[in-house]
Specification:
4-stranded antiparallel beta sheet, Rossmann fold, 10 strands, alpha/beta, elongated, 63% helix, 2 domains
């Protein structure tokens, strides 16, 4: 996947934490709960000091019931605030990540078409799933644990220095070493985590590509090849993850050694102080427990630092996509722009090359006009630029030069929703979503009622087979409409366009993949759809071309012939040759 290029390099960890700002009220309650629970934990070593110094020293006169009841009370209060803290941090964290996923999805789905040409679907879905999952772990349980053990570590250190400055100076030598190593380790893991996520995205893309094209894979016997491709991609992510785990093991083991070596030194040095009468046995016991608290907390924090480093690496990818999306031009203001009423289409000197291949021109000086109600067909060899013209009219891509107008206005003057409402398309391979027939017809217009859906299906010659389904319009069509035949999918797509009722209609080889019987039904439905609409027909079969008002012949990105069907036959040019070739094929 191409590296996102955000307009500014922002501190991603700060941005991760910044996601929590809108939820400061529940987080404040959660933080207070955390402080109370952690504060109670810091009292337990004092109970040990009391037992060692007071109870054991004067067992006959000391009532242990008081100590037991106080501890039970503290346990009860602590458990309440621990539960409240866990609930609030988890809910807020899940809410933050849900919002982040929605923001990332909006940023992806709003990108220009060239972005999708340059980035594979599997990589983008990996960002939505895998990367945001790492972010979710960082801002939910990990954030809560970091605060919890951070408070315990800081509180424990303060008590340690207050209890014995001499013993605490031993730790003062070790802590800076741990911090320096942690910072360097975090930077390394962050970079490595980004590479791991990229490798995971690559493997996801390979899997999605092969599963999505399973018929082609099976028909060519490519199962072993695809298994090997996916295996290689997964092994690369494993290799990087293994190296990351090695670094994590070395870091965690090193920190653990420093922590417990410090405890050993404190036990030795503290025992000497007790023998010399500098501190009591209870104070040393409490001190060792605080050291254990601090050591345990630092051990947990070192592991969390690894997770945060991974999350920052993932956040760079997530925020990079979001930031790159915000640089796109916003839609025009619809305030004083009249709706598209007539559907006059004009191409004026249009040149175009795809963003992924800027040095390879696809269209050169394309100029034509289609009046309301007129049907104009584009014909030419595959790769001549016919579908590209349709893509430009749909504003999937901006032209490199020249102007495209509808009703006398440049396409960019119209807000995209208004333009989309006015321009409809029926493609060679229409995409149906994995809902019901009615859901797919409503893609044309969300507020279409049941009567309008049935009427559209009837006009599209689709009602005959839909009415025979046990569930009628509520019948599920399967992923990408797999439960329907090609002709059935095409007629549902025509019904979808009828419900939309566009002023400008694009038919992109809408019958070329159908058998004769299905083509006749679909062609009849298309005739109904084209009535009183400005229609651009990208055609291959003569049954569609012959009835057009005009034919534009495209060759190597240029319009080389214009005229009615019979006029072009009589000219005996490229169009006539294409017709002869098709007659020979038939």
């Amino acid at each position: 996947m191409s590296e996102p290029t955000p307009t500014s390099r922002r501190p991603y960890l700060k941005r991760l934490i910044g996601l929590a700002v809108p939820h400061w009220k529940p987080l404040l309650v959660a933080t207070v709960s955390l402080l109370i629970a952690s504060g109670i934990v810091l009292l337990y070593p004092q109970a040990a000091r009391i037992i060692v110094d007071d109870v054991l020293a004067d067992a006959a006169d000391y009532d242990l019931t008081v100590v037991g009841l106080v501890l039970l009370g503290l346990f009860l209060v602590q458990s309440f605030f621990v539960g409240l803290r866990h609930y609030l941090f988890s809910v807020v964290g899940d809410r933050i990540v849900a919002d982040l996923r929605k923001e990332l999805y909006r940023a992806i789905i709003d990108r220009e078409m060239g972005f999708f040409d340059a980035n594979r679907t599997g990589e983008l879905t990996s960002r939505l799933a895998s990367d945001t999952q790492l972010v979710q772990n960082a801002v939910t349980n990990n954030l809560s644990m970091a605060l919890r053990y951070g408070v315990q570590a800081i509180g424990g250190l303060i008590i340690l220095f207050v209890t014995s400055l001499q013993l605490s100076l031993v730790m003062a030598v070790v802590l800076p070493v741990v911090l320096v190593v942690a910072i360097g380790y975090g930077r390394k893991v962050r970079r490595l985590s980004r590479r791991v996520q990229d490798a995971i995205a690559d493997s996801t893309s390979v899997a999605e590509e092969s599963i999505g094209g399973i018929q082609t894979v099976r028909s060519f016997g490519r199962e072993p090849v695809e298994k090997a491709r996916y295996g290689e991609a997964v092994e690369e992510s494993f290799r990087l993850a293994k190296f990351r785990a090695l670094l994590g093991g070395l870091f965690s083991g090193g920190v653990s050694f420093l922590a417990y070596a410090t405890i050993a030194i404190i036990i030795w040095f503290g025992g000497t102080m007790v023998l010399d009468g500098v501190m009591s046995a209870g104070e040393l016991t409490a001190y060792i427990l605080y050291v254990l608290f601090v050591a345990f907390s630092l051990g947990i924090l070192s592991g969390l630092w690894t997770d945060f480093a991974k999350a920052v690496g993932a956040a760079e990818r997530v925020f990079g996509l979001i930031d790159a999306g915000t640089d796109d031009e916003t839609d025009a203001d619809a305030g004083d722009i009249a709706p598209i009423a007539e559907g006059i289409v004009e191409f004026d000197g249009v040149d175009f090359a795809y963003p992924t291949r800027p040095d390879l021109p696809v269209l050169r000086d394309i100029t034509f006009r289609i009046d309301p109600g007129e049907q104009v067909a584009l014909v030419g060899a595959s790769g001549s630029g016919k579908t590209t013209i349709a893509n430009l009219l749909s504003r999937f891509y901006p032209p490199n030069s020249g102007t495209i107008r509808i009703d006398g206005r440049d396409l960019t003057d119209y807000p995209e929703p208004r333009l989309r409402d006015a321009v409809g398309m029926v493609a060679q391979e229409p995409l149906l979503f994995s809902g019901s027939v009615a859901d797919n017809v409503r893609v044309g217009r969300e507020d279409a009622d049941d009567d309008e859906i049935v009427e559209a299906l009837k006009l599209a010659n689709a009602w005959q087979f839909v009415d025979e389904f046990p569930d009628g319009v509520d019948t599920l069509v399967g992923e990408r409409g797999v439960q329907l035949s090609g002709g059935q999918k095409q007629r549902v797509a025509i019904a979808r366009a009828l419900v939309k009722d566009p002023k400008v209609l694009i038919l992109d080889e809408a019958t070329s993949a159908l058998d004769v019987e299905s083509e006749a039904l679909v062609q009849d439905a298309l005739e109904t759809l084209m009535e009183a609409r400005t229609t651009l027909i990208i055609a291959h079969r003569l049954s569609t071309v012959a009835g057009a008002d005009r034919v534009l012949v495209v060759d190597d990105g240029r319009i080389v012939e214009r005229g009615a069907h019979q006029e072009l036959i009589d000219q005996d040019g490229l169009y006539a040759k294409l017709v002869q070739l098709q007659l020979l094929e038939d």
